[in-house]
Amino acid sequence: MTTQSYGNFISGRRVSAGSGLFEATNPTTGAVWGTFTDSRIEDVDAAVSSAHTAFTGDWGRVSASERGRLMLRWGDLILANAERLARIETGQNGKLLSEMLAQVRVVPEWLAYYGGLADKIEGSVIPLKQTSVLNYTLKEPLGVIAVIVPWNSPLLLAIMAIAPALSAGNAIVLKPSEVTSASAIEIAALAIEAGFPAGVINVVTGAREAGAALVEHPLVAKISFAGGEEAGRAIAARAGQRLVGCTLELGGKSPNIVFDDADLDLAEAGVLGGIFAAAGQSCVAGSRAYIQRGTYDRLVDRLVSRASKIRIGDPLEAGTQMGPLASTAQLRKTIDMVARAKSDGADVLGGGGQPSIAGYEGGFFFEPTILGGAAADSFIMQNEVFGPVLCVTPFDDEDEIVEAANATRFGLAAGVWTNDLRRAHRMARAIKAGTVWINTYRALTYNSPFGGYKNSGQGRLNGVDAVNAFLQTKSVWCELGTAVNDPFVIRA
Asked: Domain named Aldehyde dehydrogenase: which ranges (predicted)?
């Protein structure tokens, strides 16, 4: 297998590796496939300085309408390269090619939506009692935005932050996960092809040192981060020291709740897809399934049977339903958390081990796993696995399940399966989560806000309001009259 080499992408061009390198591994085979720049402080400074120069120069002079047109052209180029980009994504993180292709193909929709909003960012004229004074507001970009994304949906999560930030007129430094760096560099090159000025979109690769340098850089005006809870907490603390803002999309321990009156065929598919799609490597994974007691045994039997038939293997093959975990670290974490759950009293109802896949013996595979009997306060029920591990628990009534669903520090998403319309909307109000799906799961789009409650994050991506998160408001006062006012009294 040929090893590919990638440098950073700064000032509109690929930059050769600097002070260090790291290797990327294909999780399906376990083989090294690429080398990347392990960026240091000086590399990050070059990227941020490039973005700042673009923001104060060429990019700052581009009209809002032209910003929108550039975003649309970029989306068209990404769509034209969707197959190539999706294969890169699958080679990086082991997710199904069909899943990654679907994600890449919707990226242009985000760019079209926010490109269309670029010339609709407007200030206001404020009516004052002093009729001789004109007071109006301007909506202005913040400057350089640091976008830090994880490895599970690298392009989609990057564009969810980049698109509104660009629409508002900011410049970008993107730091992808060290697991999935290649696709970020490829789309940055496509942005130059689309006509973006050099420096508007930069990419630095690397691990913690690069991320820390980016967060702490004095020219970075805001951080948009998607990833784990502890990393988000550290980033927010560092940003707070500099008094800059953060948008944080963090982890989850999402409940997927099935009532006795639910359509069991739909619920079975929704619970399975909620946790085993993407091998559980999703921030919204429905890793806690609560099933009303009258349906519990029947549905659990169906879930265990169906999970045992999931086709595990090469994510590039059309018949594969679940690929590997993205890294050895993620595989080890999953193994350790299942072992701890068993020692804490949980029963393995299905899966729980590492399958042997012919031809892919070095891959990071783990079986779809279903656990029963886990205590509500156990480690497995309170912490994110980010792997294909489902905990099933029976419940009796609505009040009980609301309390159980909310008994976690997370609040990113939830699913409710019922044919009772009143109950569905009562549950949607009662569950403390940023997204509640009713009789569906894992639905996402560019114009519907997405984000978390509690430790699942702060701020929202997607929707009109996301643009405002990357803007600041300036109030302008203009006296039109000639009367001399008392200089020692405030005008209010």
From this structure: 20-476
Q: What tens digit of pLDDT does each residue of 87-112 get?
A: 999 999 999 999 999 999 999 999 99
- Respond yes or no: is residue 23 known to be catalytic: no
- Three-state DSSP at 88 gives helix
22 - beta bridge partners? 36
d(CA 172, CA 146): 6
Residue 132 CA to residue 203 CA, distance in Å, equals: 49
Q: Report the SS3 class of residue 482.
A: coil
358: exposed, middle or buried (Cβ count in 10 Å: 0-12, 13-18, 19+): exposed
* CATH code, residues 4-250+456-475: 3.40.605.10
Count of Cβ atoms closer than 10 Å to residue 356 Cβ? 9
According to CATH, the superfamily of the domain at 255-438 is Aldehyde Dehydrogenase; Chain A, domain 2 (3.40.309.10)
Tell me which of 89, 216, 229, 249 is the catalytic residue: 249
pLDDT tens across 332-357, in order? 999 999 999 999 999 999 999 999 99
- CA dist., res. 181 & res. 190, Å (int): 15
pLDDT, tens only, 116-129:
999 999 999 999 99
List, in order, residues 6 or more apart from 236 with CB less than 8 Å away.
246, 248, 458
Where are the domains positioned within the chain? 4-250+456-475, 255-438
| 3-class DSSP assignment, residue 377 | coil
Task: Report the interhelical angle of 154-167 vs 82-93 (nearest 10°).
Answer: 120
Tell whether the torsion through CA atoms of 385, 390, 393 and 394 is positive or negative: positive
Q: Cα(211)–Cα(410) distance, rounded to whole angstroms?
A: 24
If phi > 0 it is left, if psi is from -120 to 50 it is alpha, else beta; for residue 477 that is: beta
- Residues in the chain, overall count: 492
Structure tokens at 267: 């619920």
Going by C-alpha positions, the residue among 152, 274, 229 that lies closest to residue 458 is 229
